[in-house]
Amino acid sequence: MIRSAYLAPTERPVRLIDVKKALLTFDRVMIPDPEDRDLFPSQAFTLAMGMPPIISLPVGPIRPLGKTADYDAKFDELMDGLASATRQDLVEVVSTYRRSEANNLVIGRVDMGGYPLNPQFLLWAYRSVAQNDSVLQTAIRADNWLMSQGDDHLEALSIAKAQADGAINDSPALSLIEGKLVREHLRKPLTSIARARIASTIKSIGYCSAKELVPLFTDSNSESLVTCFAQRASETIDFIAEDDPYWTNRRMTLRVAHQEYIDDTVLDQMSIDDVIQLRTSVWGHQAEARDSLLNSVAELSKAQVNEAEFEASVREKIAAYRQHAVDVKKQREALSFDINCELSKLGVGTASSLLAGSSLSGVFSQMQTAVGAASLLLAGCLWAGSKIQDLKPARDQLQNAEEEARDNVCFGLHNFYRKIGKSVGSAVDR
Question: Which of 95, 184, 292, 412 could serve as 214's disulfide partner, Cβ 3.0–4.6 Å?
Fold first, then answer.
């Protein structure tokens, strides 16, 4: 089965070229509903705070992501351009919950509107990460688009009132972003924007884990935030793996990466129908082989094998997969299409050194690995919240996350399809 993808939301509308890219790799592409912006349904806040599920009480915004003034108009234009893909059921607009039920007061139960995630976990995850200043800084650092906006626009993008940011039970309100800011007078709105981006990232990863989708992060700032998050998660996995054979093997999966590249300028000139025509049976076999490879690597890492056995088996699987990739590369030669699937030498088997060691622009953002989204989400939150004081509970939580989510494949950190010049060398073993 070929995996489907979810284009994680940002403040700006989804771009047509990002949908084209996704259609060239995944079975179907899910586009977030323009009104689906909050971390979880408002009526679930009391449940998230730990209260019994006896009342659905809307309390206002939890931690929503803002959007540009032209978002809705651009969204309509996008969907007009994707009409043929929508008719063929290749593209779908999805919402994480039924918003029509979000403002209803219900006694006796908490109506989640079909929301698939645990709000108590999401609230803890968000606050664990959003209290870390380095992650807040990463969420807005080097975002040229954001910093080019006028003061009024930044104020409009930020949503100051958010229930998840205030004091909750014995936990104080979240602090403003620290350190020097070029626009000091905008510290509050910039903090709100950074928090919203963190919340949206956590929600997107969790939603994709629940729905067995690959989350796609399509702009450079989202890449930076997710890469930062994944690096923290891998540090947690390394820490836990120090005396645990299960996680010693599981972290080896992060050494296997699948990357795809394409020339954006050529793709931009293609119609959506031209893109659909490239979804041939040859591509289908390659895509199925790719997902099968990552699944098999994940299962192998759970077996009682040593590193040498893991490497030998994975190299054999990658060699077999590359045979499927040859014909697709020929079919898409005009797009400068290339596929790279490798077993990294970096880090001598550790997760964090692989992620931190990759300084090549765009490389990690294009990876798919065989460690599941649920595992990396929880591991990242454990790190950010400085929760790891006892190894056993942390190990148990991570293993439970994998077993419950059954999510071993395709934690996609994608702006995949970026053409990397031939001058950029590879630090991995071909």
Answer: 412
| Rounded-to-integer distance, Cα 413 and Cα 109, Å | 37
User: 71, 84, 87, 83: which is closest to 32 by C-alpha?
Assistant: 71
Q: Up-side HSE of residue 337: CA atoms within 13 Å toward CB?
A: 17
- What is the tens place of the pLDDT at every residue in 143-179? 899 999 999 999 999 998 999 999 998 889 999 999 8
Do residues 195 and 165 touch, judged by C-beta distance below 8 A?
Answer: yes
d(CA 151, CA 155): 6
Give one word for 218, left, alpha or beta, with left for phi > 0 and alpha for psi -120 to 50.
Answer: alpha
Last residue of a domain, one of 170, 187, 216: 216
Confidence of residue 291 (pLDDT cuts 50, 70, 90): confident
Give 351-403 pLDDT, tens digit per residue.
Answer: 444 444 333 222 222 334 434 555 556 555 554 444 444 445 555 555 555 44
Using alpha carbons only, what angle is made at residue 416 by residues 415 and 420, rounded to the nearest 5 degrees? 100
- Domain total of the chain: 2
Question: Helix, strand, coil % (nearest 5) of the chain?
Answer: 55, 10, 35
Question: Alpha carbon of 17 to those of 70, 199, 264: distances in Å?
Answer: 18, 25, 8
Q: What would the pLDDT profile of 177-202 be if each residue is shown by its tens digit?
A: 998 888 889 999 999 999 999 999 88
Domain coverage including residue 370: 217-430
